[in-house]
Design brief:
Mean pLDDT: 90
CATH architecture: 3-Layer(aba) Sandwich
Shape: globular
CATH superfamily: P-loop containing nucleotide triphosphate hydrolases
Number of helices: 8
Order of helices and strands: HEEEHEEHEHHHEHEHEE
Helix content: 25-40%
Radius of gyration: 18 Å
Low-confidence stretches: 1-6
Length: 246
């Protein structure tokens, strides 16, 4: 464990915060077809993120930030090491178990929104809830509630093409919130938005964080990173710095 991670662990223990994410000596290596190493994308990484934290992950191209985000989001598995998500070791789950656990614990927000054009706003937010076995009325009620929370309670029957970019991203945020996740993971969430709309989305993140939501966001913009509570910067597959803004 690095001095940075030891300090984070000590702080969590002092404040009584419960780690929702804990990486222990995690590495990710990609190999060539002949078995030789192509790239060590992440190297012997220890990381602890407390429940309710707001973390920005930064780094230049090739630094390992996308690899780290994919591992944290259970979209990929570490080559070595352990990953505890909300207290469970997910690194060694079966594919089926991992997919189900990921769907319950993590809400994803993407730069490109990834909405289903054929569905209404309400239908887009409902869609992930079908996999949780909720009754249709319960799905609709929960979807309507989170859409109201992000300011789209009057747009339930609209299609994505009828919305502005900022509204589409709010639908994506509502969809992520609908599964009642322990973590919101956002990958460059303002990348396709104009400056004013992007600021409004960041303000929404800050509001969600103030209500206790754990947020992990990848960004290349230092100004956006500065609005988070903690900035983790990667370089050459290692955590180069881990700084709290507040």
């Amino acid at each position: 464990m690095t001095a940075i991670d030891a300090n984070a662990a000590a702080e969590a223990k002092l404040t009584g915060a419960t780690p929702v994410v804990e990486l222990r000596n995690v590495s990710k290596t990609y190999y060539k077809p002949d078995g030789s190493i192509m790239v060590e994308a992440l190297r012997s990484t220890d990381l602890s993120i407390a429940r309710g934290d707001y973390v920005a992950i930064m780094g230049s191209s090739g630094s390992g930030k996308s690899t780290l985000m994919n591992l944290l989001g259970c979209l990929d598995r570490p080559t070595t090491g352990e990953y505890f998500l909300d207290g469970r070791d997910v690194a060694h789950m079966s594919d089926e178990e991992l997919s189900a656990y990921r769907g319950k614990k993590i809400g994803f927000i993407f730069q490109a929104f990834n909405l289903i054009s054929e569905l209404t706003v309400l239908g887009n937010v409902e869609a992930p809830l079908m996999y949780q076995g909720l009754h249709k009325h319960e799905r609709q009620a929960r979807a309507a509630k989170v859409l109201a929370k992000v300011g789209l309670g009057d747009r339930l029957d609209h299609r994505p093409r009828e919305l502005s970019g900022g509204q589409q991203q709010r639908v994506a945020i509502a969809r992520a919130l609908g599964v009642d996740p322990v973590i919101l993971m956002a990958d460059e969430p303002t990348g396709n938005l104009d400056s004013a709309t992007g600021q409004a989305i960041l303000a929404l993140f800050e509001e969600l964080h103030s209500q206790g939501m754990t947020i992990i966001m990848v960004t290349h913009d230092p100004k956006i990173g500065a609005r988070s509570g903690r900035v983790i910067t990667l370089r050459d597959g290692n955590i180069a710095s881990d700084v709290r803004n507040r």
